Amino acid sequence: MSQDDDFGPRPGEESVALPERFDAGLHFIGRLRTPWTRRAACPKNGTQSEAVCTAVVDPPYAPALQDIEGASHLILLYWMDRADRTLVRQRPRHADGSRGTFSLRSPARPNPIALAVVELLRREGDSLRVRGLDCLDGTPLLDIKPYYATTDARPQATVDRAGTR
Ligand SMILES: C[S@@+](CC[C@H](N)C(=O)[O-])C[C@H]1O[C@@H](n2cnc3c(N)ncnc32)[C@H](O)[C@@H]1O
């Protein structure tokens, strides 16, 4: 078994049957180019790597990049296209027990939307060179928003893991 195969069901995990119909549709606006081709090789979050990655925006959406250089940091929303969408309880690799999907940042979730706050290094035409990603090369891009430290940062926020299972 390769390292990347170790994403199958683990003890304590629970899956559900997903509805047959979707409630909404979305359009990918581009792709994220990163150095990682195996999930096991990806950083667990964007602070764990200094790698410079590229958000390649598809031509129809290029006009939406106007003024983007005014932001030092961006929120990128992306689609974890290789994630399990059925898991409602899951067991992180190094955890003692299972945890509810919505208490985790795992890519496995009913709508596998991921987010990262990235540093915008520069714009090159329809592409953005950024630092702070954690996803596979080719991951679809859903949206780009400016990160506002004034309204988005919550330095006092905590996550208490004691007693979770
Ligand atoms: C823990 S998630 C965090 C994602 C995002 N920063 C967030 O908080 O929503 C990052 C992990 O997702 C996995 N991953 C990366 N790209 C993926 C993709 N396209 N499909 C499925 N899993 C992916 C890798 O194992 C990576 O380490």
From TrEMBL:
Question: Does Transferase show up as a keyword for this record?
Answer: no
UniProt keywords (A-Z) are: S-adenosyl-L-methionine
One Pfam family, short name: TrmO_N
Listed name of the protein = S-adenosyl-L-methionine-binding protein
Q: Residue limits of the TsaA-like domain?
A: 26-156
Transmembrane ranges, per UniProt, are none
Please state which protein family the record places this protein in: Belongs to the tRNA methyltransferase O family.
Q: Which PANTHER family match?
A: TRNA (ADENINE(37)-N6)-METHYLTRANSFERASE
Organism the protein comes from: Methylobacterium hispanicum
Q: Which InterPro entries match?
A: TrmO-like_N, YaeB-like, YaeB-like_sf, YaeB_N_sf
Q: Superkingdom, according to UniProt?
A: Bacteria
